[in-house]
Each structure stands twice: as C-alpha cells, then as structure tokens.
Fold Acetolactate synthase-1/2/3 large subunit.
Amino acid sequence: MNGAESLVRSLLASDVDVCFTNPGTSEMHFVAALDHVPGMRSVLALFEGVATGAADGYWRMARKPASTLLHLGPGLANGLSNLHNAKKAGSGIVNIVGEHASTHIALDAPLTADIEGIARPMSAWVHTSLSTADVGADAARAVQQARTTPGRVATLILPGDTAWTEGGAVAEALAPEAPERPDAALVEEAARALAGEGSLLLLGAGALTEENLALAGKIAAATGCALMSEWANPRTERGAGRVAIPRVPYPIDLALKALEPYGKIVLLGAREPIGFFAYPGKPARLTRPDADFVPLATAAMDTGAALEALVAATGAAAKSALIEAASLPDLPPLSPLTPETIAPVIANAIREGTILVDETVSSGGYLPAATKGAPQHSLLQNNGGSIGYGLSVSVGAAVACPDRKVLALISDGSGMYVPQGLWTMAREGLDVTIVILANRAYNILRGELTNVGVQNPGPRAIDMLSLDRPTLDWVSLARGMGVEATRVEDTAQLALALDAGLEAPGPVLIEAVM
Amino acid sequence: MNGAESLVRSLLASDVDVCFTNPGTSEMHFVAALDHVPGMRSVLALFEGVATGAADGYWRMARKPASTLLHLGPGLANGLSNLHNAKKAGSGIVNIVGEHASTHIALDAPLTADIEGIARPMSAWVHTSLSTADVGADAARAVQQARTTPGRVATLILPGDTAWTEGGAVAEALAPEAPERPDAALVEEAARALAGEGSLLLLGAGALTEENLALAGKIAAATGCALMSEWANPRTERGAGRVAIPRVPYPIDLALKALEPYGKIVLLGAREPIGFFAYPGKPARLTRPDADFVPLATAAMDTGAALEALVAATGAAAKSALIEAASLPDLPPLSPLTPETIAPVIANAIREGTILVDETVSSGGYLPAATKGAPQHSLLQNNGGSIGYGLSVSVGAAVACPDRKVLALISDGSGMYVPQGLWTMAREGLDVTIVILANRAYNILRGELTNVGVQNPGPRAIDMLSLDRPTLDWVSLARGMGVEATRVEDTAQLALALDAGLEAPGPVLIEAVM
C-alpha cells in the first residue's frame, strides 16, 4: 500500500469520509487512491476557498470533520480566508495540502513556498509527514486535532514521495482530548451573579444547540437573568418551540445600547464583547466599564456540562423555559425589495429543518425578529468576518444534510469573492436555494465610512463602494456555472421564487434586486 | 494631514500613481483620501487576487510599481497566490494592507489575524507602521523595496489609527539600491565557456528585453553558443525583427532532451533548470549530470550590464545577431479547435505592440513556433505556477499600456480561479481580448497522472480532472460581469472573433470550445 492509499484508509478509519478537493500534480496519487478505496466521497471545487468553506459548513452540520485536498502553498493560500472563518467558528477541518517530493523542496521550483508558514496563522495544528510510514498515523492525529473541542483546523502537509512510495500503514482512530469541565467555584459564582439585578448570561459556540438553549432558558426562568448570544455564532438552533435569544447587534451604537443594562455578565462559550472594528472616539469594549464578568466556560470547554452545572446551582431543573411560539409575520403588500420587506417573505419561506446560511451583511437587519417563530431551522453565521463564506459553507452543509433544505442569503458583494461554489452545487445536485441580495454596493462600508469619522466622502470614495458599473448579472453568472436562476424585483416575485426554489431538489439562484 | 493622506501623497511622490484595491472598514480613510489628493488612479476589484495579479501585470509593463489596498489578514490571504506568482516573477508591488487600530489588535476581534505571518511567505519585505508620523516614510521605503531589482513584493501594514490620526508627513522618494554588476573574472569564464562546443547561454528575468536579446544574439553569432530562456519568463519581447530564443519545454521528457546537448551553460538572469515537479524515477535537474554552470548573473543583478560585458569579452560588438524574419503561418483550412489549429489563428491575429498574456497550460504547445515571426509583441508568462493569474495580470497590463492591445489566452480551468478580473475590465473599459481555451478539463493533470506513475487511473480519478459536469458557459459568465462575449467552435469563427475583439476598444471574451 502506498502512502496515498494509507491516507485515505486512515481517514476512513477515523470516520472522515468526505473530501472537498482541488488537486494538482502533487496530489495525483491521492486522487488515484480514490478508485482503489471505496467509501470516500470526493467533491471537486474550482477554487480552494470553496473546498475550505465547504469543510467548515460540513463540520457545523455533520458534527464531524471533512478533509480537504489542496495543491501546495498557493492552493492553500486560496483556501486561507475561509479557513480563517472556520478557525474563528471553531470548525474542525482536516486540511490536507500536497507538497513537492522531499528531494525537490530545496530546489525552489516555481510552486515552492513556505507551506507551514502559510498554514500557521489559520491552523491550530500544522504537521508535515516525514515518511510514507508516518502518513496514516499523521492522518489519525490530524483528525484527533480537528475533533478537539470546539473544533480545530488541522493542516497536514504531505510531500509527494510520501504518497507514491510503498510502505503505508493504516492507523486506528484516536480519541480527542475531552473538553475541560467548568470549575465548581466558578459555577457557584456564576449562579450568584445571575441571581442579581442586571445580569446577563452571554452564550456562544457550542452553547447554542437545542438542548443547551433549553437549559439556558431554565436558568433564565430561575434567576431572571437576560439571555443573549454573540453577534455571530457558528450554528444556532432557532424557531418555534425553542428558546429564542437575541444577538449582540453589529452596529456599535446599537451594541453599546443593548449591553448597557448589564453589570454582571456570565460568559458561557462566549467572550467579552468587543467592537468588530475600532471606531475613533468610541469604546472598544461594548459593555459598561463597571461590568463584572464571570468567565464560566470558553468555547474550548464543555459548554453543555457548564449549563447543566449552572442549572443545578441555580435550582432551575424543574423550571419551564420560555419557548418561542409558532408565529410568522404577515407577508407585506406588494412592495419593492428592501431589508425590511424581504424579512417577512423569507420567514414565511422557511420550512421545518431548513439550514439558513446568513451572509446578508447590511441587508439582514430585520431577519432575526421575523424568523424567530418560524419552523425550526439551523442558522449558520460568519464568526471570522471575512465575507465570501456563504456559498461555500452552503455546499458543505448540503453535503452533510442531503435531507434538509439549505437557504443561503448572500449579499452581492460577498457572493463575488468565491462565486465558484455554484458550480460545485450544480455538479453535486445540492439542494440549495440561494438568494442574492443585490443592492449593488458595498453598502455596509457606506455606513462604516461615517462610523470611522470620514466626513463628506467625495465621489471617488463613494465610487469605490459601488458595484453598479457594470451591474452584476447574477442570473447569467449562475447559468454560466450550471445553476438555474431567476431575477425578482418585488416581494410577490420573491415569495414565488423562494417556493419554487425550495421545492426543486437541486440548486436554484434568485437574484433579489434591492 | 492624517496618515491616510500622507500615504497617498508619499506614494505619489515616489511615482506610484495606481492603486488596485478591495477595501474594507479599516481602509476607509485611505479611500476618503483619494478625494482629497488628485493623481492616484484607483481601480476597484471584487476579489483581492485581482488586485495583486493586476499589480503584477502593471509592473511588468509599466516598469514601475503599483500599490494595492487590501483588507486585513483575510483580504491579504485572498491576494496571496497571485503575490506568489509576482514574487517568483520578480515583480515590484507596494502591497498595502489595513490592520485594526493598534489598541484593537490585542482584543482578538473576528477579523484579527497574524497579518505579518500571512504576508511573509510571499513578501521580500514586511513592515507595520507604528505611528501616523511614520506612514509617509514607511511608504517611501516600501516603494524603494518594490523597485529593488528585479522587483520585490513589499508589504506595508497600516493600523487604522495611523490612518485617521493627524500628524502625517509626506516623504520624498528613496532610490533603490543599484543592482550588482557581474564579477569580471566570471565574465571571462563565461566567454571561454561559450566559445567551446555544446555551450548554452540560458537567459531569464530582465535579460529578455529587446535590447538585451539583441546583445545575446551578438554573443551567439560570435561564439556559436545556443540561446535559450527559462520555461516561464515574466516578460519576453518577441516577434519579427527581434532575436528569437526557444524556451526550456515544460514536459520533463522534452526538457531533458532539449538540454541534453549542453555541457557548458552560462546562467544570465536564469537559474539551473529543474523540473516543475519531481517525478518518480526521473531526475530533478534537467541538465546533464556532467554539465558545468557559470553563474554569471542572477535575476537580482544587472543583467543588461552582464550582457554588455559578455559582448565585450566575446568580441561580439560588431557581430550581427540572427534576427527573426517577419513570417506568419498559413491559416489552417476550416478545422475544429485544437492546440495545433488555434496556434496559427492566434499568430495571425497578433498586432504590432500586442501584449500576449499566456495562461494556456496544456493548450499552448504550438504557440511559440507559430508566433515567433509575428508582429512585435510582449509575452507575459507565469513564473510561479499558481494558475489563475492571467485575467488579473491582463487587467494590470491594460492599465499600464492603454495604447496597446492585450490578448489573454486563458485555459478554462485556470480562468475559474480568479474570474472576477472580467468585472474590473468592464468597469475600466480595458482593451483586453480574452480567449478562453475551453477543453473542459484539467487536461494538464491527465498527463501528470501518468508522469507521476499512476497506472490506469480509474473513473473517479478521471472525474476529478473533468470540468464538463456541468459545462462552464463562459459567455454567460462574462456577460454576468458586464463583458461582451461570444462562443466559437472552429478556426474560421475564432479568426473572425479575434479580429472583432481586437478591433473593439473594450474587453471582449471569446470562448473557444476545443
């Protein structure tokens, strides 16, 4: 067995059975191994950002890692910004990068680069296999790392000769280290804090599963504390019958206002709230200067155990959590598409089990309120802030959950960073409905210009934030990549297109002109 | 004056007057400064790889650096693979990256990343400005670095507060260090080597200007040595009336054969030839094991001075170089499009001064012979091997040379890595004709499968190298980004479309189905 085959067999032994790939010459033996070894689903991407973003989305929904297969330093570089988002989301990814044969690296060939150096800023673990005999065991370690709570980007670099040489060995799966449980004294301190006035339980990361939210709801019922989640969360279970919690707003002034009431804040899978950016003359920390924090559990700890302990300490076990009733906003009368008018239309389109991928940037402000009583759904957001994640994450979510509908809400500016995911959706027949929110501008930046203190931006500055010269035609773009598409310009057309898109089994793109 | 304005004014003082940009919040003050300071042409890209690739193409044609303006670590990451290509090509780029305000970095905001760490693998120089007062001087140093022979990627990282705070100062231009001249003893040794049997003068980098090629031609006439250039070169002046030199072939067996005759090789702007990849059972070095090298001048040295010295040492000053006569291949009879049939059609389309951007990968094998007697043109190739450079480099070349036609030959697989350059071409009305060579496969990899020793690849391996499920529709893709497009399927249609495309003043895309 050569090293390539030992890699595939070891990944399968560790229950990694999906590979999102854009291979090159140095990966040809891995590609060949796919024919010898049954069980690994390989999904081709035309750009590496699709592969890494898909692996991110796959982790969030499958709760186990996928692998990638990327081509040397530049291929890894192309996948880096979505690895950044995955890292910030705590997604586990076995990120495999081919390298030149060991003997070739020193010759500084055209594609030679410092792969470890490129990988390190976005990876929790980086390792280069030294010989064929190591490849299987290194793969098992990479999976173990990827599975470490909350999930890690583990980059394994495989020189070509470790792939093509005989002497590979299949490695058994390695259990990840169990996540740390919360300190008992901190649990008591948190319970005391939450029982007081002006207290907030701030949740993030793994705390937003259905079960954990139910526990948080009991705690709120027992203590009277407020519940809130971080601005962005990798996956939030939402909808009728679940505990709904508001998010810290993105705009700095709204965030300051939302957090102003709280003097005691328990952090559970969340961090102390800070501004997305620094703004001149505004505080970096979003909480009151006198706020006390109880750092009960980080995202890397066992957030479920922390919530259970907190339920016990607050005597909340028998309490009833406030759960969201089923309710949908009325459909607006026939209207042009605006952030306000699209929200009820989208809320009404959500079906039981829909995976809602949110990359709305400036167009999504009305969605949380409109959708909170919708049928139960999973909400995936971007923790890393690097726009261009939504289409790729949707690919991975759809591969992970072929029986669920994916509804991707993508701003036009965001979608253009990594549009190539559309082709993979068509190739794999993935059940994704994409709504492109086409305001034809980097609209968020128009607000940010003012926020950072730019007075009276001139025409050249405004022009740098405009995407209307030429207008992007998303219907043509989608068709160019084999995805059916339609353009809508009012709420009635959007509602019809959403119904048709969600009914269709494969990908459909809707360009919503705002 | 705030730091942002001092940046723009200092770049202008150093003769950097083009900025390829995809800005975000942390760069808003620089965007605003464009309105206060006349003279900087800002070109918006929808993806950072377009900006970095455009800066590469701009350098090659303008012979001076452009700047970029990228958004934090992930924005830089998106531009990294084309920076890799620029680094390998020796292109000078002032790569400017916004960073969080100094006070914000430690808070680990969503977009926080190790920007210096991300930049380092692809940059010759990396610096973070420490205060507003430093920004202007740091910009001048970055330009000085970018201009250092043969050209360097200089990354300047600017924390937001250095941009928005008052106290900026405009810096004067700094002269780059003069490139080293060749050692006199080595010149003599090179002259002796070239006078012998089986000698080769291998050229690369700056040695391929029209003037330098003329000097090389004289040396060949005086000594009888062969002339050859590296497989890929950042810019080669070619066509009727110039000295034509063959390139080392890409396929390893052909390369070994082409270099077999030579026992004495003088390197002038070139490196010892090595395989693009390592292939099992084949040598990594492409020259005879007994070949002697004279390392006369690296790419970082004064290649023109080296050639002049070699002309003197070989007594070649009065010799006549063999120059290429004007000659064009006959147009083939009406034929389907193949690598062999497209070459004469393209050769006949080349006009005086055309800039030919070559990203043909497997489809370009017949082009060098077909085009060598065509009207004078500049050939831009990819030294870094990371495909997805061609459309972006074409943007920069067209911005640098508005009075010349750019003809970009792009393989379909390559074009899909960074297709967003099409939108910038439309926005700026750039005079680029793009031919997409649509063989609907990663065809080069089918050959590489065999080269690396994979026997009988199975259907799943072949499927990973196929781009025909679904078929990419480049006409739709181009129109989606505002570029006129047409599809051709035979040589007559291609010839007509090329004429029309080159006649039109703006961008036109031709999908050539092979």
Notes: Chain A has a mean pLDDT of 96.
